[in-house]
Design goal:
Blueprint (H helix, E strand, L loop, with lengths): L1 E10 L3 E4 L20 H12 L3 E4 L6 H16 L8 E5 L4 E2 L6 E2 L4 H9 L7 E5 L5 H15 L4 E9 L16 E11 L4 E9 L8 E4 L12 E4 L1 H23 L6 E6 L4 H13 L14 H4 L6 H10 L13 E8 L3 E8 L1
Parallel strand pairs: 4-7, 4-8, 13-14
Antiparallel strand pairs: 1-9, 2-3, 5-6, 8-9, 10-15, 11-12, 14-15
Helix pairs in contact: 2-3, 5-6
């Protein structure tokens, strides 16, 4: 049985937030103390490390479930299927629907139920549920869809990664410049065609790593707001990722039966350009090789880090010919990989 991605879709918000737009922000250290550098210097260093020049934010009237629906519609159309034939809708996200200028996240009903409602799917046997797995959530959703189909529980699944991080960022935190909004969706189903999901790997490191990414208070010390924001220990995450992600990808590739020279593309979570590059370089170093040119497509420079949406969006952009100098051809072996809150890591070896 071959299980393939037969349709893709993404939603890229139209509002562009450029690096220069942060020049007037009041950035503070985690303890509330002032940073002894002009914002222009802070932003320049940020760009050098992350590769991000601009990011996308959704319009005030939109919600996370709305953009998930838009991406899902495109994937369904691209796959040319009847939406009533979908057995599972799996929506990976982390913060639910957060209304513009709201302090509260809304997760009841689930985003999957909201997407099903917006799609106007009548079939009650189409089951929707949400998946909270940090940034690797979309990949984990594809892994779960694969398991459902292999076991005979389902024949066709809609897997969505969607996030609106602009609604949970602390404007006094330099890390707020990393985050963005977006959604990506795919149809996963049984196929008579060759290829599809060959192998997968997942892991959760929570003994010392559980709180590397967390919800915390603003860096503004005199604030009386009870609101919480996405926070992280960047250095710890960087060191963790460089140590563990290459090993996970290597293990996944070994389980697939393919070799390192068979790999044509690595679609890694768009978290931080320097970190992603270091991860992939280390992965190739494990095979006594240098990282091939063009092996790691990047969208983070213009789209930022939209968490669970980065990998499916990147995949959709490449397949639709919207990423310069990048393409995936029939029979290509590609790797999907991600790391994020949990701390979770996963990877898929996939034959297009």
């Amino acid at each position: 049985m071959n299980i393939k991605i037969t349709g893709t879709g993404s939603f890229i918000p139209s509002t562009i937030e450029k690096n220069e737009d942060f020049y007037n922000h009041e950035f503070l250290n985690a303890d509330g103390s002032k940073i002894n550098s002009p914002n222009e210097v802070i932003v320049k260093k940020f760009k050098a490390i992350t590769g991000i020049e601009e990011r996308r934010y959704i319009k005030p009237e939109l919600l996370n479930s709305d953009i998930a629906f838009y991406a899902a519609e495109k994937a369904i159309t691209n796959a040319n299927i009847d939406k009533e034939s979908i057995d599972y809708i799996i929506v990976a996200h982390n913060y639910g629907d957060v209304k513009h200028d709201s302090d509260q996240s809304d997760t009841v009903p689930s985003l999957a139920s909201r997407v099903k409602h917006l799609l106007q799917i009548k079939n009650p046997k189409c089951v929707g549920y949400d998946l909270l797995f940090g940034c690797p959530g979309w990949i984990e959703g594809v892994i779960q869809a694969n398991a459902f189909i292999k076991s005979g529980i389902a024949k066709r699944c809609l897997v969505i990664g969607t996030e609106t991080l602009s609604r949970v960022i602390d404007k006094h935190d330099r890390d707020s410049m990393i985050y963005s909004d977006g959604a990506g969706a795919v149809i996963v189903e049984q196929s008579d065609e060759e290829g599809g999901i060959i192998a997968h790997e997942s892991a959760t490191f929570a003994l010392d790593e559980a709180h590397f990414i967390y919800f915390g208070e603003t860096n503004k010390p005199e604030s009386t707001s009870q609101r919480r924001y996405i926070k992280m220990y960047g250095r710890k995450i960087y060191e963790f990722a460089l140590t563990n992600v290459p090993l996970a990808i290597k293990s996944c590739l070994e389980n697939s039966g393919y070799g390192i020279k068979d790999v044509k593309k690595i679609l890694i979570h768009q978290a931080n350009e320097k970190m992603d590059e270091a991860i992939v370089k280390r992965f190739y170093k494990l095979h006594d090789m240098d990282m091939p040119e063009g092996i790691m497509p990047m969208s983070i420079n213009t789209l930022g880090n939209s968490s669970v949406a980065t990998v499916p969006t990147l995949y959709d952009l490449i397949l639709k010919g919207k990423l310069d100098n990048q393409n995936i051809n029939k029979g290509d072996i590609i790797i999907f990989a991600s790391v994020g809150a949990g701390m979770n890591i996963n990877a898929i070896v996939y034959k297009y």
